[in-house]
Design brief:
The complex is a heterodimer of chains A (560) and B (636). Chain A is of the alpha/beta class and 560 residues long. Chain A has four domains: 92 residues, no CATH class; 65 residues, Alpha-Beta Plaits (2-Layer Sandwich); 171 residues, Rossmann fold; 187 residues, Rossmann fold. Chain A contains 21 helices and 23 strands. In chain A, strand 7 and strand 8 form a beta hairpin. In chain A, helix 15 packs antiparallel against helix 16 and helix 20 crosses helix 21. In chain A, 49% of the residues are buried. By secondary structure, chain B is α+β, with helices and mostly antiparallel strands. Chain B has four domains: 119 residues, no CATH class; 276 residues, no CATH class; 83 residues, no CATH class; 66 residues, no CATH class. The chains are: A alpha/beta (560), B alpha+beta (636). The interface between A and B is medium-sized, with 32 and 26 residues.
């Protein structure tokens, strides 16, 4: 094995590919690799991609041949490409296109390339359930309603369908993007936002129209949604995580598009209207009267002939919405998220039912281009006093985490941090209500929790936006979709165990670029020598893999 | 002429000429003076004496060639008066000119060098004393080091050429395996001591050698396994396995060093052994080496198993192992630290510098296969024996202790110097140590051998072949990693794919338990990445290092159960016993093993004794008396 030291790729036998970003030909290698490999992580120095069935099939869908993928690997690999990897690429690529779903009147036609494949799928336990109506040796008639579940089953069987059945046309509704915001400031869709929307829409072809765009918090995912609406030009249903998020969507629509207020309807706990652009929450869609009952609000998916459905924070999509989405495969679907990491491991369902990842960009790349604020991440280890250490030591394992998370010494440390960042616009976020209530009381700032009425929340946020408030304490309602662009310091005093997704979301709260170029500071208080350290390590993973480096300090060592 | 050989030395030139020379030889020697030769032997001797008298000795010496002068200087400045041709040849690469070399002795003509040596190469003492006044001391023997270790070894072998119908001497390239031992040995020592402490090292009570099960257990804890991995052979004729080397050596080393002693069939740590668990491994290794040099626990020659007669007729002739190990140690001590040396060069240097030895006084009683035909007294067998002894001492003991790094090839076919010995046709190798091709004195070796007063570990070589990532992963991105680097990464991190390892606290704690240090991994990562280590990684290493020091092993303790809580409190608080025990729950006391004797004595003074328990631990019982008999065992 003679190494070609200028080459940037190291192809491993498990299908992962390391890209050394400092290698002379790294950018060339990245461009060659990205079309058929998924970026798994991008910490400093070395980025990791993975060749997966889905990534290879996506590349095939985009017209890339197996030999082109193999050649790209060979050309940029530092060492000889393991033969098993080349073989795997060829085999996976050969499977793509063996099954094609097309429209056949009111129903669908599932056509296999040859009888062997048809027979294999016909006998498959899952896929066979939907392929009962055989037209001939290689063709099956499938009910239109089974499009989603059939695609799921075909992927599980290892034969991804090329879905050329297209989309049903929604009610036309033109969305235009403004050149100036309501406040009179110049507005334009950034290049990467436009590329993301175009990668999703694919010029209206049936090969596009469904998929996920992954962008960091603060990078303007909402604008990508608006750009996609403009491209599709049909009625749109937006699914958001909370009422606050619904309000934010409304604000953005009114601020940056020509959509009139009366064309925006909200389908929430407060009011249940539908309109050309309807905003709703996952919570209302998954509401039901009792545990065994049906989900009445899922009917919203069929309430109008939606031309586009946008799933905001798609990584939080609840299971009932997944199931409902399986039934609406003829609608264009756009997922927006900062991270495809799902703590429940259902990334595959997002792929199958919403669509493949259409666009992503490493967080640090956007930071370099100043589209998101530069951030420093610091984890501070706060010691517990002897009495609390003893309480921690004697508690059962589950309670230990909470005892550590609610370490009262954190409040003292927090006070010092507030003094240190006196000029900052600070968000304090915690997991436990008792803890955040105590903190808010001690430092004398407003508290926003799930119990805070919506109007009151909006009032607090508005005061913060106007600069009347320098600091807000938030419970975990602050994890998502609060639009406080001026916040530049976030102090998390506790979190949901080792949730990487929560860590990423919280960082996102302060990533909006600041008008004066201030850097964002993401501070985490962790009790020293406790399980909280272990969970903190897990939480850090996502961000370190996005290229952020953490500084870990011990309070005592800094003389604080 | 009275005598031929001069083992005892020759006092004067006159004695040499009269007692060790016949008239014919004197005549040839006297002819070198250029004087008119008399006919009587005494007169001939007088001519030579006159020729070397006074300042004429200097002139005679000046008339010698360079190598001849060197031969004179070697003897003049050595403790012996005898010229050692083998040493001289090893040092200078050739022998001095002694004269013509006709087949018939009567035709031979001596050279001027013969004026200085008599009786088979001995310099008369008076001559030596006079020469000392002006003959300069010879330069010490030099050893050559290599600038760079080659990647492979050219192994010679014989091939049958079917076209020419002849045997051809050809070579093949065999990759070298480098074993850097300094750090490994220090960690392995702790691992071995822990294994002993766990009662898992069984040795023979007669030979003190480890059992097969022990060798298997030891091989499992050796870093990267033993020097040569065992490869199953289809039959015994194809078996080319070297067998255990380090796994064999460690139990003997710890016994010889007084760190472990036999208890039944298993070793247990001595007090020194227990102390060694908490001391700097380098200090312990220095002691181990010093003790090994003088030990009689094993004669390394017995490890060269093809040599028969060692326990029979040949046993009496064997020299003491100390007399062999000491010169090897001295030769090693003269080697420069840090430079690779071929094994053959080391053997040459040892001979040239006078650090040679004999394995036996009578090699005729040692043999291969069959005493009559395979005796090692012929065909240079004794020399092979001595060289193999050195290889054994170096590889099995010096390298195991980390005194030298070694570069190895498989022993089969590595050396072909024994092919002419009778009975060696079926041997895959002469000794399992034949594959030792290169060695390098480590800083630890320099310290143990007395070259350095303090141990300064070798700095880790800087090679940017790794990237340490903030997500705790380590990616190998440089040119291919060396085996030693892979082993180090495997020891500290979990391998997640071909080129990626991941650090985690659990694996790091295991590494510390195996005797590694967080400083070492940090230095290693810094040296191999060439970049500062990310803060997340630094913090993880610090966390693990801190946590690893928070719970300490203070040695074994005996658990003592008392009849009730009051009795336990009484003993734990009594001035005669409280220093030697600790409360462990309500009715139990923990007595450190080191304080057990004192505790028992104090306990008796308090009026109780330690009775053996029924199933575990021991119980405290009131001391027996005629009126108050001691309870049955385990009754307390």
């Amino acid at each position: 094995m003679s190494p070609a030291s200028d080459n940037a790729l190291i192809v491993q036998s498990d299908g992962s590919v390391l890209l050394e970003v400092h290698a002379p030909r790294a950018e060339e290698a990245r461009a060659a690799l990205a079309p058929f490999a998924e970026l798994v992580k991008s910490p400093e120095h070395v980025h990791t991609y993975r060749l997966t069935p889905l990534s290879v099939w996506n590349a095939r869908a985009a017209g890339l041949a197996a030999e082109q993928m193999v050649t790209a690997l060979r050309e940029h690999a530092r060492y000889v490409v393991p033969p098993g990897v080349e073989q795997e690429i060829r085999e996976l690529a050969a499977r793509y296109g063996r099954v094609v779903i097309t429209r056949d009147g009111d129903a669908l036609r599932c056509a296999c390339l040859d009888e062997v494949t048809a027979e294999r799928l016909f006998r498959d336990r899952e896929a066979g359930r939907y392929l009962g109506n055989r037209i001939d040796g290689t063709n099956f008639r499938v009910a239109a309603s089974q499009r989603g579940v059939l695609k799921q089953a075909l992927i599980a069987a290892g034969y991804p369908a090329e879905d050329l059945a297209g989309y049903v046309a929604g009610e036309p509704f033109a969305t235009t993007l403004c050149e100036r915001t309501a406040a009179g400031e110049a507005f334009s869709v950034r290049d990467y936002q436009r590329q993301a929307a175009e990668a999703f829409y694919l010029a209206g072809s049936e090969r596009g129209g469904s998929g996920v765009v992954v962008l960091p918090c603060g990078a303007g995912k909402t604008v990508v949604g608006l750009a996609a609406m403009a491209l599709v030009g049909q009625t749109t249903l937006v699914l958001a995580t909370s009422l606050t998020s619904v309000k934010q969507w409304r604000r953005e629509l009114l601020d940056k598009t020509g959509v009139r207020p009366e064309d925006i309807a909200e389908y929430t706990g407060e009011r249940k209207n539908t309109g050309p652009v309807t905003l709703t929450t996952y919570q209302i869609l998954t509401w039901r009267a009792d545990r065994e009952g049906a989900f009445p609000h899922l009917e919203l998916f069929r309430a109008r002939a939606w031309g586009l459905i946008i799933y905001d924070e798609v990584h939080l999509l609840p299971a009932p919405v997944f199931r409902a989405t399986a039934d609406i495969q003829a609608r264009r679907r756009l997922g927006l998220t900062a991270t495809l990491v799902r703590e429940d491991g259902r990334e595959g369902d997002v792929f199958a039912l919403i669509g493949p990842k259409r666009f992503d960009v490493p967080w640090r790349d956007l930071e370099r281009q100043a589209w998101i604020a530069t951030a420093t991440c610091v984890e501070e280890r706060v010691p517990m006093d002897p009495a609390r250490r003893m309480e921690y030591a004697l508690a059962d394992r589950r309670s230990q985490f909470r005892i550590a998370a609610e370490n009262p010494a954190k409040a003292l440390r927090l006070r010092r941090l507030l003094e240190r960042h006196a000029a900052g616009r600070i968000l304090v976020i915690g997991e436990y209500l008792a803890q955040v209530e105590a903190i808010a009381k001690e430092i004398g700032v407003p508290l926003v929790t799930g119990k805070t009425p919506q109007a009151e929340r909006e009032q607090v946020y508005d005061r913060f936006r106007r600069g009347e408030l320098r600091c807000i304490v938030l419970s975990k309602v602050g994890n998502f979709a609060i639009d406080l662009p001026d916040a530049d310091v976030l102090i998390q005093v506790s979190g949901a165990f080792g949730s990487r997704q929560e860590e990423a979301q919280r960082l996102g709260r302060i990533l909006r670029p600041k008008s004066d170029g201030r850097i964002a500071r993401f501070l985490t208080l962790v009790s020293r020598d406790t399980r909280e350290e272990e969970f903190a390590h897990h939480r850090k993973l996502f961000l370190t893999e996005q290229g952020y480096s953490y500084q870990v300090v011990i309070s005592d060592e800094r003389g604080l | 002429m009275k005598r031929y050989d001069a083992d005892e030395g020759i006092a004067t030139l006159e004695v040499a000429l009269s007692d060790y020379m016949n008239a014919d030889d004197l005549k040839k020697l006297a002819a070198l003076t250029g004087e008119k030769l008399p006919t009587r032997k005494a007169d001939l001797a007088a001519v030579i004496v006159r020729h070397l008298d006074g300042d004429r000795l200097r002139a005679a010496w000046q008339g010698l060639e360079d190598l001849q002068r060197a031969a004179v200087a070697e003897v003049v400045h050595s403790s012996s008066s005898r010229f050692r041709a083998d040493r001289f040849g090893a040092k200078y690469g050739a022998g001095p000119e002694w004269g013509s070399t006709e087949e018939q002795a009567w035709r031979r003509r001596p050279s001027a060098l013969c004026l200085f040596f008599y009786g088979n190469g001995t310099m008369p003492d008076d001559l030596k004393e006079r020469l000392k006044a002006f003959v300069p001391a010879p330069a010490p023997a030099k050893i050559e080091t290599l600038d760079q270790l080659p990647a492979s070894h050219e192994r010679p072998y014989t091939r049958w050429n079917s076209k020419t119908k002849t045997q051809e001497q050809v070579t093949e390239e065999v990759p070298l395996t480098v074993r850097e031992t300094e750090r490994t040995a220090q960690r392995e020592l702790l691992s071995v001591l822990r294994l002993v402490d766990a009662g898992k090292v069984a040795v023979s009570d007669t030979t003190r050698r480890p059992s097969s099960a022990t060798i298997a257990a030891l091989t499992a804890i050796l870093e990267g396994g033993d020097y040569y991995a065992h490869v199953p052979a289809r039959n015994k004729w194809e078996d080319k396995n070297a067998g255990p080397i380090r796994a064999f050596a460690w139990p003997l080393l710890v016994q010889a060093g007084g760190l472990a002693q036999l208890s039944g069939t298993r070793l247990q740590l001595t007090k020194a052994g227990r102390r060694a668990l908490g001391e700097t491994a380098a200090e312990t290794i220095r002691t181990l080496w010093a003790r090994w040099v003088g030990t009689t626990i094993l004669d390394e020659l017995s490890r060269i198993e093809c040599v028969k007669g060692q326990t029979g007729k040949g046993k009496r002739g064997l020299t003491a192992p100390l007399s062999r190990r000491r010169p090897v140690a001295e030769a090693l001590a003269e080697c420069p630290a840090g430079g690779w040396i071929t094994t053959d060069e080391f053997l040459r240097f040892a001979r040239a510098s006078g650090h040679d030895f004999s394995v036996t006084r009578n090699a005729w009683n040692l043999y291969i296969g069959e005493l009559q035909y395979g005796s090692l007294g012929q065909d240079g067998g004794a020399g092979i024996l001595e060289e193999r002894y050195v290889l054994c001492l170096l590889l099995e003991y010096a390298a195991t202790l980390g005194l030298i790094d070694v570069a190895l090839v498989p022993p089969a076919g590595a050396r072909d110097d024994y092919g002419d010995l009778w009975g060696t046709d079926d041997l895959p190798f002469f000794s399992r140590y034949d594959g030792l091709m290169y060695l390098r004195l480590t800083p630890l070796g320099a310290y143990c051998l007395g070259r350095e007063a303090v141990h300064r570990p070798a700095p880790v070589e800087v090679k940017p072949v790794l990237r340490v990532l903030p997500n705790l992963e380590i990616a190998a991105i440089g040119t291919e990693l060396e085996q030693a680097d892979r082993l180090a990464l495997d020891a500290y991190a979990t391998r997640v794919s071909d080129f990626v390892w991941r650090l985690d606290a659990g694996r790091l704690l295991v590494a510390i338990e195996e005797g590694r240090s967080m400083t070492e991994i940090r230095e290693f990562l810094a040296a191999r990445s060439g970049d500062p280590i990310p803060d997340t990684v630094v913090r993880l290493l610090q966390d693990v290092a801190e946590r690893s020091a928070k719970v300490r092993d203070r040695g074994l303790a005996r658990l003592v159960e008392c009849a009730d809580a009051a009795l336990a409190a009484l003993i734990a608080n009594d001035t005669r016993t409280r220093k030697y025990c600790l409360r462990a729950g309500e009715r139990h006391l923990a007595v450190p093993a080191s304080a057990e004797t004192a505790f028992r004595r104090g306990l008796r003074e308090v009026g109780y004794l330690l009775a053996a328990g029924e199933t575990r631990g021991a119980g405290v019982a009131r001391a027996g008396s005629p009126d108050d008999p001691a309870p049955e065992r385990g009754e307390a």
